[in-house]
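tool_log.txt
---
The assistant was asked to compare two proteins side by side. It first ran the structure predictor on the initial sequence, then on the second. Raw inputs and outputs are pasted verbatim so the downstream comparison step can read them without reformatting.
(1)
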Amino acid sequence: MRLAKYLAHAGVASRRAAESLIAAGRVSVDGRVVSDPALDVDEHSGVALDGRALAGAEPRLTLALYKPVGVLSTARDTHGRATVLDLVPAGGRRLYPVGRLDADSSGLILLTNDGELANLLTHPRFEVPKTYRAKLGGPPLDAQALARLCDGVELEDGLTAPAQARRLAAHELELTIHEGRNRQVRRMCAALGRPVQELRRVRFGPLALDGLGEGEHRLLSERELGLLRAL
């Protein structure tokens, strides 16, 4: 098995993040730091991260979490702020979030130790849809604003891909995007003169936030995991 894939199966990180760990010189094989993510290894190769031996693949665990506002969607924070991992029992497993939600946004986020699944859900070429509900400032939503969101909005990093937009109320929007740019929904709405006041992610691919309260989580079923992999 390739080294980056081995790290992903060991629950260290997604495969892409594992490649970054290798490039940073944090991974060793049989006591020697290696730099080749394609190096062939197995459970007898003595793979270690930061000097700590990895036992190989651990049982897969994927959770859906309703992230509250103010909680960081990262595995750890150097300033001691609350993260999504503080809200779930990991049972000794090395969980990490799939994708990001801003600290000032709430809603559905996934936590997993399945690096292959994380890679599938975050790689740009798979275009996993994510649906948000936003409360907006500025003038009421009109047909022109919705059309611009659907056709694409020009941002400083380029035109956004076509989206699906639905008006829920004069100042409330449901928006589905297939990209993962930084603070994309907020920047799209701000470009239309309608700054986001509240933002909540209500769907991630086939999964919905339904049934979870803020800070609550649940284990994904095998059926749901199958739907995610089918994406």
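(2)
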Amino acid sequence: MLLAVDIGNTSTKFGIFDGERLSSKFSIPTDPNSTKDDVKSVVGHTIDKAISEAIVCSVVPEADEAMREVLSSIGIDRPVFVVNDLDFGLKINYLPLSAVGTDRLVNSFAAVEKYRAPCIVCSFGTATTFNVVNKNRELLGGVIAPGMKTMAKALNLNTAKLPEIEIAKPENVLGNTTVESIQSGIFYGQIGIVESIITRFKNEIGDNPKVIATGGFASLIAENTTLIDIVDENLLLDGLRLLHERIYPA
């Protein structure tokens, strides 16, 4: 069995694969200061003893060592940690290569493997990211914008009176309370970003790319725009499984 781990800025997601089947998944908050014992106390009882291999994608380097120690403690001494110069089966036109997040690389790889190129991959998390792969399997680059929770927190931290609000779609675009006004600005602002970026990408590259959305807010966004074709909440975990199979073919 394979353990796939996605260490993100806000949460760390775990997926346990029995062959191609995702048999279970769970997540914990990401804390860069967590020790091995901290992490193991939360996840130790949920990790199947039959797991023999692991692959990890991380955008929080400070959390990597604790994860290595946790995996070692359950008998996995040589986990794969995804690095930027792995062979993803894509030509990566991103400069420098070391600067692109491994999560973006895995998501792009997974989208092409599962849905084929050309495609646009949108990930809605701490940041909202867009990645474009053309019909020749070239990762052309993309866009990074603030995620909705990041926008909400920034408004709260950088103003004297604005509260930090729950992310939700308001009943009307026109808000008549402060909370509704902020919700509308964040939600419809994000929709505006999505629709503008996707439309501009399509005009720029042509080829009618398929648009795949993933991340915590993917379903909410997809329900409110016609430009997203597929919502795949397990895109990155599936990508880690597929990448592991690519590195260690049966």
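---
observation on (2): The chain has two domains: 2-81, 91-240. Helices lie at 36-43, 64-73, 102-115, 148-157, 178-205, 218-222, 235-247.
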